[in-house]
Amino acid sequence: MSTALVSGASTYETSPPIPSQELLDRNAKSAESHKIRVGLHDNWEKFPRNAIITCMDSRVHPHKQLGLADHDTTIIRNASGRVTELIDTILTSQYKGTRHFMLIKHTDCGGFYTTGPKFKEHFKAHAKNPDALDSLPAYSASDKRGFGDATIEQVVLSDVEYLRNSPLIFEETTISGWVFDDNTGKIRQVA
């Protein structure tokens, strides 16, 4: 297992097994330069005013891909970066001081390759209780999963509009929508 840092990057070439001694060793090395940021004055009163909502895909690295500094932007992730599933986290971030949510979707997202019927079929075949998924409201009445025939721009615009129209989003909060192109590594604004 290679423990070498990638040239010019802050990450390793490969990930260690989880859990493993190598993982603990890497953490110990990181802890050597750890800067304490705890408590009301040093952390919570300085909560980032910007947040990025994006996919959990491991190819999406907002800090690296956008040149962001540590601790100045909150990163909120889930499958496909869909905001409807993140509303509690978004509201908490807003309560703490976030006033700009930047939604970033990426062009090769798994949402283009996932369908409700295939998703449900997979879980029913592997879950401890094949009927458990049906007890969740989000899955019992709908076969909606993934993006369907929508374009990436339509997916971004749908989530942007959802937040902009939400009565829970503060008047002074900005919502913007972006597309990260997995082929070029560049982003572009669509909303």
UniProtKB/TrEMBL annotation:
<comment type="similarity">
    <text>Belongs to the beta-class carbonic anhydrase family.</text>
</comment>
<keyword id="KW-0456">Lyase</keyword>
<keyword id="KW-0479">Metal-binding</keyword>
<dbReference type="InterPro" id="IPR001765">
    <property type="entry name" value="Carbonic_anhydrase"/>
</dbReference>
<feature type="binding site">
    <location>
        <position position="109"/>
    </location>
    <ligand>
        <name>Zn(2+)</name>
    </ligand>
</feature>
<dbReference type="GO" id="GO:0008270">
    <property type="term" value="F:zinc ion binding"/>
</dbReference>
<dbReference type="GO" id="GO:0004089">
    <property type="term" value="F:carbonate dehydratase activity"/>
</dbReference>
<feature type="binding site">
    <location>
        <position position="57"/>
    </location>
    <ligand>
        <name>Zn(2+)</name>
    </ligand>
</feature>
<dbReference type="Pfam" id="PF00484">
    <property type="entry name" value="Pro_CA"/>
</dbReference>
<protein>
    <recommendedName>
        <fullName>Carbonic anhydrase</fullName>
        <ecNumber>4.2.1.1</ecNumber>
    </recommendedName>
</protein>
<feature type="region of interest" description="Disordered">
    <location>
        <begin position="1"/>
        <end position="22"/>
    </location>
</feature>
<feature type="binding site">
    <location>
        <position position="55"/>
    </location>
    <ligand>
        <name>Zn(2+)</name>
    </ligand>
</feature>
<keyword id="KW-0862">Zinc</keyword>
<feature type="compositionally biased region" description="Polar residues">
    <location>
        <begin position="1"/>
        <end position="14"/>
    </location>
</feature>
<comment type="function">
    <text>Reversible hydration of carbon dioxide.</text>
</comment>
<dbReference type="InterPro" id="IPR036874">
    <property type="entry name" value="Carbonic_anhydrase_sf"/>
</dbReference>
<feature type="binding site">
    <location>
        <position position="106"/>
    </location>
    <ligand>
        <name>Zn(2+)</name>
    </ligand>
</feature>
